[in-house]
Amino acid sequence: MPSPSRPIVYYFAGLAGIIHLRLAATGHATLDIAWSGQPGLALPEVWEKGMDGALDAAVADAPDTAPLRALLAGTPGGSA
User: Fold this and answer.
1) Model-level pTM?
2) Cα 79 from chain centroid?
3) How far, in Å, CA of 55 to CA of 53, rounded?
4) How distant is the alpha carbon of residue 60 from its chain centre?
5) What sign does the dihedral 71-28-31-34 (CA atoms) show?
6) Crossing angle of helices 45-58 and 8-25, rounded to 10°
7) How far apart, in whole angstroms, are the C-alpha atoms of residue 33 and residue 56?
8) Does residue 3 carry a pLDDT above 90?
9) DSSP character string of the chain
10) Are 43 and 29 in contact (CB under 8 A)?
11) Residues 32-52: what's their mean pLDDT?
12) Average pLDDT, rounded, for the chain
């Protein structure tokens, strides 16, 4: 159970934002403009499948950054 002094939601959202910026800056994510819906960011398939789990592991009470580092290592221009 997370401690109340550690706002995991903010850590998760902040880390996700940094990852999104990095993927966009390196051309691995593109804007998804949906005229009839909500705009977003189109991520590579491997990131769509693994990002949430990797971020959850990275911000857990006992952090494990290995899944996130593995995703980053598999992205050209990324670093682990």
Assistant:
1) 0.73
2) 14
3) 5
4) 14
5) negative
6) 150
7) 27
8) no
9) ---TTS-HHHHHHHHHHHHHHHHHHTTSSEEE--TTS--EEEPPHHHHHHHHHHHHHHTSSS---HHHHHHHHTSTT---
10) yes
11) 87
12) 83
**Residues 6 or more apart whose Cβ sits within 8 Å of residue 56:** 12
Cα 29 to Cα 32: distance, rounded to the nearest angstrom: 9
When pLDDT is averaged across residues 60-65 and rounded to a whole number, the result is: 91
Sign (positive or negative) of CA dihedral 54, 78, 45, 9: positive
- Chain-centroid distance, C-alpha 75: 12
Give 3 or 46, the one with higher predicted confidence.
46
Spatial neighbors of 65 by CB under 8 A, at least 6 apart, are: 57, 58
Of how many residues is the chain composed? 80
> Is the per-residue pLDDT at 39 higher than 90?
no
